[in-house]
Structure formats: structure tokens, C-alpha cells
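Q: Sequence in, structure out?
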Amino acid sequence: MPDTQPVRIETGGRWPTPEAAYALAPGIGHEIEWTMRAAVHTPFGVPLGREFWLRKAALLDRFALRDEASGFTGDATHAATEAARCLLGIDHAAGLGPGGYANGPYPPDHPDSTHHPRGYIRQEYALWASNQ
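A: Exactly. Output:
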């Protein structure tokens, strides 16, 4: 079970480190099960919501980080980036501004967010997880 202390987001100039972003994340197996269950139990034609895309993108980012640590960039890196872009699209389309997303320093339409979608995921996941 993750520690329930609030996360202090260290951006290192821009984004939370993976360690800070995923400090409160459940284990990877739990997140695989959660995303699978959410996808299977969502009726056909009903869009999967923000939480699904946030958690899926974070899960894929964690897989990609493992691959990249081994010197490999491939399918996991591509999948993580595409899932992050899905969340950026959801957040941008919502157009809600403050409160419409997790209110990190970089909103979804900020150039740094669009150029670094996985950084945006880490920002949003860390803020989301610390509020659960």
C-alpha cells in the first residue's frame, strides 16, 4: 500500500521526477488490473474518462521508464507518449482552465506540455494521486 503523505512535486525545472510522480502509485499489477477492468466494464460507445487515460498513461510511462533504463526505446515509449497525448487532448478539449485539470504549473495547452506529453502525465498523476 502506498504511503499517504502528500507529495511534494519536484519539477527539476519542469516536470516531476518519475520517483516523485509515482511515489503514491499503486503497484504496476494493480494498475494493469484497474485499467483492464475499467476498459472491460465501460459499455461500447461510452468514452473512457480522464481518470482512465491518466492512469493508463502513467502505467505505460512506468513501463517505458523501465525500458529506457535498460537502453531500449520502442513500443512502450511510443504507447506512453500516445496515451499522454490522449489525456492532453481530453484536458485541452475540456477548456476548463483552473480546476478543469489537476492545476499543475503547466496547463494542457502550454507548449512545454505539448512538446513533453509524458512530463505532463507525471505532473498530473502526482497531483491526482496526492488528492486521492
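DSSP finds six helices and no strands in the chain.
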